[in-house]
Amino acid sequence: MIRPRTPPGVMELLPREQIAFQRMLDVIRRNYERFGFLPVETPVFELSDVLLTKSGGETERQVYFVQSTGALANAAADAEAGKADSGLPELALRFDLTVPLARYVAEHEHELSFPFRRYQMQRVYRGERAQRGRFREFYQCDIDVIGKDSLSVRYDAEVLAVIHAVFSELGIGEFRIQLNNRKLMRGFFEAQGVADPQQQALVLREVDKIDKRGADYVRETLVGPDFGLPEAAVARILQFVEVRSSSHADALARIDAVLEGAGEGASTVLREGAAELREVLGLVKALGVPESAYCLNFSIARGLDYYTGTVYETQLVEHPGIGSICSGGRYEDLASHYTKSKLPGVGISIGLTRLFWQLREAGLIAGIAESSVQAMVALMDEAQLPQALDIARHLRAGGINTEVQVEARKVGKQFQYASRAGIRFVVLAGEDELARGVVAVKDLVREQQFEVPREELAGALRVELEQARALAGR
């Protein structure tokens, strides 16, 4: 007999844990749709040559390839016939949702309306080294706005407002959306003598490590033999990336200070970055996002090179050790490998599987929800099964999720079952109740029992559930 076990690197939940996870998904989906984003799903696997077009060697080492026995037989036959073989299986599991989005938009470009606003909430797969809190299969919840030829920076502000709406409704504690602009960073680096774009990208990657590795590590790296930057320039860079704004007005003043520091020699890219940040901040305020929910953080760079303008990272104020709970930014051209059209965009991603695990580990969520089944109709006598089924039918018609015990058992066993399953109400309709036209309802949460006319049962339970929701929302 084979011992049942889950593969390492996956999160498999019990039913009430799954309900808690699903409700977080529902909150995210609801807020994405409130802002006018449309759902898209792409296949779990893509053609390998399409998926790996933009990947590097590290990404390719983490990809799961898909190979059927039929494909293996065909490959062997092709090899015998002397046909060329790329060396890679035809299909691979997606490792994020961005590359599939690029393929999707390029393929359906002439069928889509631009700017194209999409959300996608699906599993992705990476060959992560098995360790606690790292997953090989996990949910990503993405939104992106894709433009044709150009895309206003105003969408960058709207995306920030979406982040605020999602995490406000999730109710997981005070959070802060930190934003920066890579043009502003590049312009500042140019003023410090780091003008080569490739070297800027490398410096950006090191700066992005400052919160994890510390300023001393970044200083030693930048003045070391790999970079060889002057100590004075590195000191100015570190002073720059330590900037954190404390209010909306302070954020605008910090941007002005960068421009004033550059003086007449401020480059075009520096001025563009400053102007974009100012516009985003102005619109964020107009969108009603409170000042306490966002700030500038000039160390935020995002490690991926394709970000070109606004970048975001979101952190829980009282739990910074959890790291970024939502990140993303602006990119100049989504699908250059698949189409000649220029498709700039801005987007964010929430890695929900890891976030759910982290929040549960930190005690910020219970991780177990009440059951989605709100009532259970007990069966005390086989002869009463038709009446029990009829009561359940009326409850469902009245909007109450209902389960029926279709085999008679001792009442105590049925109560025990409902309690373990997280079902709040147990409906009892014995011979006496049926004769009087009433049912008895056992509330397992309040540990109380009451009677209600049979035809009023659904309405009475709706009132009880609405009162419970109101109390929970206090």
Give me a quick take on this structure:
This protein has 474 residues and is of the alpha+beta class. The chain is built from 18 helices and 16 strands.
Uncertain spans, ≥5 residues at pLDDT below 50? Answer: none
Give the total of domains: 3
Share in β-strands = 15-25%
Mean pLDDT rating: 90
How many runs of DSSP E, i.e. beta strands? 16
What is the correct CATH architecture of the largest domain?
A: 2-Layer Sandwich
- Write out the strand line-up for the largest beta sheet, numbering strands in chain order: 1-5-6-11-10-9-7-8
Would you tell me which CATH topology of the largest domain applies?
BirA Bifunctional Protein, domain 2
What does the overall shape look like? elongated
What gap, in angstroms, lies between the N and C termini?
Answer: 52 Å
Instruction: Output the radius of gyration.
Output: 28 Å
Helix content: 40-55%
Annotated CATH homologous superfamily of the largest domain: Bira Bifunctional Protein, Domain 2
Task: Please name the defining characteristics of this protein.
about 475 residues, alpha+beta, BirA Bifunctional Protein, domain 2, Rossmann fold, 3 domains, 8-stranded mixed sheet, 5-stranded mixed sheet, 16 strands, about 45% helix, about 20% strand, elongated
